[in-house]
Amino acid sequence: MNSVNGYLVTFYTQQDRRHGHQQISEWLMDLARDLGFEGATLNVATEGFGRDRKLHSAHFIELSDMPVQLSLAITEQECNTLFERLEADGVQVFFIKVPIEMGTSGRHS
């Protein structure tokens, strides 16, 4: 098994939050791809609340307030690059960053 140390970075936002003309979640996904990261996972939640204690949820008629999370398993250098870019672009988004060991099990061919 080959493994490397890095970070699991998870961003939390809502469907209606935007950066420029794009939803923040889409913008983050595109950024991860543009930076050459190996993968990202976007999850949409049914309900959640933030520091303002306001409940955010997916409603049958209106989905704009739906909670969204994007997770990335990235190296330390990728993490530094990502946060430098967020700072440069003035993007404000809540995140959790956890040190991890990542790798792939099994034989590599």
Describe the protein's architecture and organization.
- Helices cover 23% and strands 43% of the residues.
- It is globular and about 45 Å long.
- It has helices spanning 24-34, 76-89, and strands at 2-14, 18-19, 22-23, 41-44, 47-49, 55-57, 67-75, 94-104.
- It is an alpha+beta fold and 109 residues long.
- The two termini are 13 Å apart.
- It has a 4-stranded antiparallel beta sheet with strand order 4-7-1-8. The chain has a two-stranded antiparallel ribbon with strand order 2-3. A two-stranded antiparallel ribbon has the order 5-6.
- The protein has a single domain (2-103), classed as Alpha-Beta Plaits, CATH 3.30.70.120.
What fold name goes in the CATH topology slot? Alpha-Beta Plaits
Shape, per Cα inertia axes: globular
Written as H for each helix and E for each strand, in order along the chain, the element string is: EEEHEEEEHE
What does the largest sheet look like? 4 strands, antiparallel
The secondary structure category is alpha+beta
- The quaternary organization reads as single chain
- The percent of residues in helical segments reads 10-25%
Beta content? 35-45%
